[in-house]
Amino acid sequence: MKRKGKRLFYTTLLALIMSLTPFGKAHKYAEPLPNSRVIKQGKASWYSRHSPGINRHTANNELFDDMAMTCAMWGAKFNQKVRVTNLANGKSVIVRVNDRGPHKRYARKGRFIDLTKAAFKKLSPTQKGLITVQIEFL
Question: Where are the domains of the chain?
Fold first, then answer.
């Protein structure tokens, strides 16, 4: 009887926890994003298939293509369109969210979007590596 009581307690506790935490919740470094247009400013970087630790597939299970106009971002829905504008030169590009990132150690330092190499090239030379951008959710 004692064993059944513990099992029931832990099963109920697990069910309660699962109901309070949504499946696939946003990363702890991401702020929840409303559905309306939001403009944010921060740092952006680029990544390619040759970068260390990059998987063959993105977080939404697409094949990673560093020549596509896509990005990695925490807290945004997959397939969300985002306009990224380089604040230094005014150039902008529209990308689609298909991956999660940047890595948490960079997110803690204020970086909140990783662009593919092709998308970053439209904003700035890749030698820069890190730029200040404005992001608008479309």
Answer: 26-137
**SS3 of the chain:** CHHHHHHHHHHHHHHHHHHHCCCCCCCCCCCCCCCCCCEEEEEEEEECCCCCCCCCECCCCCECCCCCCEEECCCCCCCCEEEEEECCCCCEEEEEEEECCCCHHHHCCCEEEEEEHHHHHHHCCCCCCEEEEEEEEC
Amino acid at 117: K
Model pTM score: 0.69
CATH topology (fold) of 26-137: Barwin-like endoglucanases (2.40.40)
Query: pLDDT category, 119, cuts 50, 70, 90?
Result: very high
